[in-house]
Amino acid sequence: MNPDTSSTLTITRTFAASRVRLFDAWTNPNSITGWWGPKDFTLLLNERDLKPGGRWRMGMTRQGEKAVSGGVYREITPPARLVMTHAWEDVDGHLEPPETLVTITLAERDDQTEMVFVQTGFDDAPTRDGHRGGWNEAFDALAGALARATTTAGHDHEN
Asked: 2: which residues sit within 8 A by CB, 6+ positions away?
């Protein structure tokens, strides 16, 4: 019998960047604006208190559709790991269930970084799969932003 995996989303991607750079892309407000959100969404809100217990909020819009998500940072271990809760806000700005837990783990692989993104706590497979599509579009944009930054900088290194 197979275990029910409908509550967990796992995405593994490899990026042509150092762990430091990729961690910065997740935690630096100026960096995250270059890639956050699914395709064709525009970022309209970017708030974060980057510390364990600190809150974060990101808002985006597309063709009049507004979506705001937020949560709390649970663990911040530069440049290897980031853990935070994630939930969508209702029209009154309150976080709605389900609250999911996002764990991002970064590991060096030669001159690249492997990112393992795990989001747990979904109520059902369709909700999980909807998030899969959105995150994959965001991670495509992240790869593009990292490539542009590398081209601009001329090199990529970790201190």
From this structure: none
Over the chain (159 residues), the average pLDDT of each successive run of 10 is 74 97 96 92 94 97 92 98 97 93 98 98 95 97 91 52
We find that the CATH architecture of domain 8-39+77-152 is 2-Layer Sandwich (3.30)
Helix (H, G, I), strand (E, B) or coil at 34: coil
Dist CA 44 CA 21 (whole Å): 23
What distance in Å separates the CA atoms of residue 33 and residue 35, rounded to the nearest whole number? 6
So what's the pLDDT on residue 153?
Answer: 56
Domain range summary for the chain, segments of one domain joined by +: 8-39+77-152
